[in-house]
Amino acid sequence: KSRAKRFDRGQPGVTFDDVAGLQNAKRDLREISDYLRDPQPYRKLGAKIPRGVLLMGPPGTGKTLLARAVAGEANVPFFSISASEFIEMFVGVGASRVRDMFQSAKKEAPSIIFIDEVDSIGRARGTGLGGGHDEREQTLNQILNEMDGFEPHEAVVVLAATNRPDVLDAALMRPGRFDRKVTLDLPDRKARQAILRIHAQNVPLAADVDLVRMAALTVGFSGADLANLVNEAALLAGRKGAGEVDMALMLEARDKVVLGGRREMLLSD
Ligand code: ATP
């Protein structure tokens, strides 16, 4: 596994407009991006902004996208790591990476830290599940120590994503840590339509493409599935030498995404 990417600064320019649906999540997170854009008025009011926010939702519902959008809205640097990377590392590497990342984020504050798949290190301790995994535990403890060690004036907000909130160690949710929760649901029909529209923006569509109908035919699809569908349709068009994507290709791509997901499920069972 590559160790070159300690954390990435994120693509600048992702904003809430790039995130379809998820109105409640966006409303909750706007408070954070407003604060990071200009912490001064909040400081004068003595307002305590949340240190850590847990983004909870099924795979592909836009947790990473939304975290990037908070940074983009606030126009602040975005530092990210995926907690699952630490699992196979030597003891001490995860903790030192966490330390480095928090140090950089504080140096460049206001800023955002994003920890993806936090459940892979943040599982409840002593459950027997990966119990006694030193690396995991040290990394988790380092995250908790760093969050407890923030000074009140340090404008760094830590966002963490998980699709397994049920297995998380309660220590993560204590006051001053990830004490704020934001839930992301699978998109409803209107949101699916909006997501399809966003991802079809740069794809030439034939006149017969009906995104309202596509939204109705994609119950249970995540945002990532829908992005994938549009891309598959464009690839199919390319392969057939067509200059645009028509409804038949959209439907073919839809089946492909459904079957792809089912295959993955069968393989992982
Ligand atoms: P995972 O749990 O698998 O890490 P995630 O919840 O972090 O997934 P993202 O990585 O943010 O999901 O989503 C993958 C891609 O799906 C995004 O980069 C984006 O292209 C698309 N997508 C997901 N949700 C949305 C949305 N609400 N609006 C627009 N695009 C979306």
Automatic annotation (TrEMBL):
Predominant location: membrane
Localization per Swiss-Prot or TrEMBL: Cell membrane; Membrane
Residues of the AAA+ ATPase domain: 49-188
Keywords, in A-Z order: ATP-binding, Cell membrane, Hydrolase, Membrane, Metal-binding, Metalloprotease, Nucleotide-binding, Protease, Transmembrane, Transmembrane helix, Zinc
Sites where the protein binds ATP: 57-64
Gene Ontology MF terms in the entry: metallopeptidase activity
Keyword Kinase among UniProt keywords: no
Domain of life per record: Bacteria
Subunit structure: Homohexamer.
Family: In the C-terminal section; belongs to the peptidase M41 family. In the central section; belongs to the AAA ATPase family.
Protein purpose: Acts as a processive, ATP-dependent zinc metallopeptidase for both cytoplasmic and membrane proteins. Plays a role in the quality control of integral membrane proteins.
Name this polypeptide is given: ATP-dependent zinc metalloprotease FtsH
Source organism phylogeny: Bacteria, Pseudomonadati, Pseudomonadota, Gammaproteobacteria, Oceanospirillales
Entire-sequence positions represented here: 173 to 441 of 644
